[in-house]
Amino acid sequence: MTSSRRRAIAIAALLAAAIPALAACGAGFDANTNVPYAPNEAGVLYDGDGPGKAYGKNGVMIPQAFVLGPESGQQLAAGASAPLYLTLLNSTGTADQLTGIVPEEQKATSVKVQSPIDLQPGTLAKTPGVTVEGLKTALRGGESIKLTLQFKNAGDVALTVPVVARSREFATLPPAPTAAPTASTASPLATGSPAPSDTASPETTGATTSESPAANAG
Q1: What whole-number distance in Å separates Cα of residue 151 and Cα of residue 101?
Q2: Cα-based torsion angle of the residue sequence 107, 165, 98, 113 in order, rounded to the nearest 10 degrees
Q3: Among the residues of 104-180, which ranges form H helices?
Q4: pLDDT tens-digit map of 170-217
Q5: Pair 84, 111: CB distance under 8 Å
Q6: pTM above 0.90, yes or no
Q7: Please, are residues 138 and 191 in contact by the beta-carbon 8 Å criterion?
């Protein structure tokens, strides 16, 4: 049996074990990812269209991805931050790194990654401490944000990530450290200028920030 064949079998076994865990009740990265809370369970990233489309792109598989929004009945105002949760799987035989994330220009100014995230072959990797910064519009849950993940070897991988409400199995997940206070839905949706930039936190000093150039829009 060739090494590539053995690697493919190992990856398939790992995904088979990971998917039920991601769908099980719990919190954090083990939270339930069933519709409507994270409607991309185990199929967040496909390459191509039609029956011949393949799961994963450039050797990267993403069985779970969501942006944590506000509590039910609340909203995150424009200018606030929101945590981003990803579960990644490197299906190649070579180690890789997630070096940065760029959001679509219309949705946020940047995504803060505390440090490059290592992706060892055949091992699930998670992304704690990653936040979407400078939201351009208010979020209440149910929206989606297009992100471009930048990998050292795999290159750029674009995907659309849903915004989930901080409720039910997601209720114990902490909001972003720099997030502005949520506003009641009785207040008008914030669509104008961002809130005053008084949310800087010492914990974010020295973090890697991926800005959102116009070239990455859409």
Answers
A1: 9
A2: 70
A3: none
A4: 899 988 775 554 554 443 444 344 444 444 444 444 445 555 544 444
A5: yes
A6: no
A7: yes
